[in-house]
Design a protein that fits this description.
Transferase(Phosphotransferase), domain 1, 31% helix, Prot_kinase_dom, membrane, binds magnesium ion, six-stranded antiparallel sheet, non-specific serine/threonine protein kinase, binds adenosine-5'-triphosphate, 7 domains, alpha+beta, Phosphorylase Kinase, domain 1, kinase
Length: 646
């Protein structure tokens, strides 16, 4: 695939492939927005008639704008590549959602139904019938908005030129009886298909299954849904009623418009009872006739043996004639049924024509799907090699012989190389590593990140607590490893108890979840001694576990007897000394020596010329004390003296 279409759309990722196209996520470089681009499979690009219809239909639906319809932005061609540019829906298609979750909750299903019905209502009002309503074409965004894709495009696929590749296998499960018969299709045909979608949403499976498209199509024509057996008991009867009315075989028995359906859904949502009860009761007691049962088993065999071609009318007639025991009525009914098979066969003749077929590209398709499609036209399948390949899912096809575009015939064998998935690798240990470091570790082992969950833990935030699969187990290359990552410690809130009036001892027990902070003592003669007078955090409120609470405790003070110290008498004196007259200015420091070292009591620079060489320094001490003094001149020791204070 090219990286750029028409110098405008930059292809980013492949997001899906269907019967007739591949879908890519892309960026429109002009409008700088993300879009989805549906690129026609190359085998269709050569078919002028198909191409024209495809473009016309895409353009017709481009006129539709509705929040529940995937918007079409552009239709284009770049050399051989034909494409449609549309709104990108970030989410999942409904088929994958059902595959992942199984049956959906019925109120959720009802909400999706309503959204699809709104989309259909808009399209039908504009004269556009979808023709291919199926869960693959319903995209569910992350916030549960349903958007219907591929409006009207299916019309192009009814062209007789479509061979094996047609999307009929996927779609036939949702075909209305008139579509199966090749009859007249109208808006009620979309509503029938929507009924089948509803059935699948609430049960997790499709109602009519079969080995071949013809078989399935026949069931849409002949068989009824068994409401008693197949629909879960807890589904409200009004939803069964909706389903019943949507899936009526006769177009005129169904809802006549999407609008009517929306109305009924809204009634159900508002708990207003609807009155389809009678019809519905009748419906599940109705039995299929015996003849029909008999034909059901004989027809598929016949199809397998002979292929479905125009000779079938004669052969099935012969078979019926041989059954002598059948009543005349039986024969008539059988004739009508066999005629309907011819119609079906005609409608699906792309699968059964005995001429040459064009081999299509089965790369990435499941072996099962490819086998079903090829065996349906009498081509056998052989697995040539099983190989490890992490880029192709297990049991999906890596390559094929003959290649796409070659011609194949009934009776021929097609060979496939099938993927065994990625090669086995050993899972590395990532527990206790940070989430950021994991990407590189996984890349080295050819693994990728799986689902990440977050939990509170004593490990630092962002650290991995556990992993699945466990370290050192063997898994396939490309497997996703799920982690649980720490979101740090949980902040637990505790209720502050009221401890005022309690003893400190009791308070310590009550306050275990909090911490006791500062304890202050105060006196309050009105309260008992030892009790708590106040607390810094009010009782009854919630605070983080471990938060400190300060307490004030009642403590009776003892009467203080202050012993009066007899006051000592301070005596002031002077020490005097003479300096040498030779100097002009000198620095004089006097230190008084005491118990805790000496302290400067005098520090001056003296100009001897001006103030003379005799210095007197005032000193003081208590009566009876003796103190020592040291004199320094220009930082050098000069003299020492002692003074007695009397
Ligand atoms: P069919 O060929 O019968 O239509 P399909 O609907 O599965 O089958 P596509 O229409 O080619 O095939 O789409 C393939 C897948 O691509 C879809 O199932 C869907 O998951 C995804 N897809 C299609 N259109 C969009 C879109 N606009 N946004 C996001 N994903 C999309
Ligand atoms: Mg589609």
């Amino acid at each position: 695939m090219k990286k750029m279409l028409n110098d405008r759309y930059e292809i980013l990722d492949k997001i899906g492939d269907g019967g007739m196209a591949f879908v890519y996520k892309a960026r429109c470089t002009i409008l700088n927005r993300i879009v989805a681009i549906k690129v026609l499979r190359p085998e269709f690009s050569d078919d002028e008639e198909f191409l024209l219809k495809f473009k016309n239909e895409a353009l017709a639906s481009a006129g539709l704008t509705h929040p529940n319809i995937v918007n079409i932005y552009d239709v284009g061609q770049d050399e051989e590549i034909n494409y449609i540019v549309m709104e990108y829906v970030d989410g999942m298609n409904l088929k994958d959602l059902i595959k992942k979750k199984g049956a959906l909750d019925y109120s959720y299903a009802l909400d999706i139904m309503k959204q699809i019905a709104m989309a259909l209502n808009q399209a039908h009002k504009n004269g556009i019938v979808h023709r291919d309503i199926k869960p693959h074409n319903i995209l569910i965004s992350q916030d549960n908005v349903a958007k219907v894709a591929d409006f009207g495009i299916a019309k192009a696929t009814t062209s007789s030129t479509i061979t094996v590749v047609g999307n009929v296998i996927g779609s036939v499960h949702y075909f209305s009886p008139e579509q199966a018969r090749g009859g007249y299709i109208d808006k009620t045909s979309d509503l029938y298909s929507l009924g089948i979608v509803l059935y699948e949403m609430v049960t997790g499976k499709v109602p009519f299954k079969g080995d071949t498209p013809v078989n399935i199509a026949l069931k849409h024509i002949n068989e009824n849904i068994d409401f008693e057996k197949d629909i879960p008991k807890d589904i409200p009867k009004d939803i069964k009623g909706l389903l019943y009315k949507l899936t009526q075989k006769k177009q005129s028995d169904r809802y006549q418009s999407a609008y009517e359906l929306i109305n009924d859904i809204e009634h159900i949502e508002n708990n207003i009872e609807l009155d389809f009860e009678e019809d519905y009761e009748l419906y599940h007691t109705q039995k299929l006739n015996i003849l029909n049962e008999e034909l059901k088993t004989s027809i598929p065999k016949q199809l397998e043996e002979e292929g479905v071609n125009t000779n079938m009318r004669r052969k099935s007639k012969d078979k019926i004639n041989n059954k002598k025991k059948l009543t005349i009525l039986g024969i008539l009914l059988a004739l009508i049924l066999s005629l309907s098979i011819v119609f079906v066969a005609y409608n699906l003749k792309g699968f059964f024509i005995t001429k040459n077929y064009e081999m299509i590209d089965f790369e990435n398709a499941t072996l099962e799907d490819a086998t079903n499609r090829l065996e349906a036209i009498g081509v056998s399948v052989q697995v040539r090699k099983e190989l490890y390949d992490s880029s192709v899912e297990k049991n999906h096809i890596i390559s094929q012989v003959p290649s796409a575009g070659s011609s194949i015939k009934k009776g021929q064998t097609v060979k496939f190389d099938v993927s065994k998935g990625g090669e086995p690798v050993t899972v590395p240990n990532v527990v206790r590593k940070t989430l950021e470091s994991v990407e590189d570790i996984l890349k080295e082992s050819d693994l990728k990140e799986g689902v990440i969950d977050y939990e509170f833990s004593s490990l630092p935030e962002g650290t991995i607590i556990s992993q699945k699969p466990r370290a050192f187990t063997e898994v396939e290359q490309g497997t996703g490893i799920d982690f649980i990552v720490s979101k740090g410690e949980e902040v637990k809130l505790v209720k502050v108890p009221n401890v005022v009036g309690k003893t400190l001892e009791d308070a310590r027990i009550l306050l275990v979840e909090l911490g006791i902070g500062k304890i202050k003592y105060e006196e309050n003669k009105d309260k008992k001694e030892g009790v708590i007078l106040s607390q810094s955090l009010k009782g009854g409120q919630h605070v983080e576990e471990g938060k400190k609470i300060d307490l004030t405790v009642n403590e009776y003070k003892e009467e203080e007897v202050v012993e009066e110290e007899p006051s000592k008498k301070v005596i002031e004196k002077q020490i005097s000394f003479a300096l040498s007259e030779e100097e002009e200015t000198v620095k004089v420091v006097v230190k008084e020596k005491g118990k805790n070292g000496s302290k400067n009591i005098y520090n001056k620079t003296i100009d001897i010329q001006k103030s003379g060489n005799m210095i007197s320094v005032p000193i003081e001490g208590y009566e009876g004390e003796t103190k020592e003094y040291e004199i320094y001149v220009d930082d050098a020791f000069y003299a020492k003296t002692t003074a007695e204070f009397k």
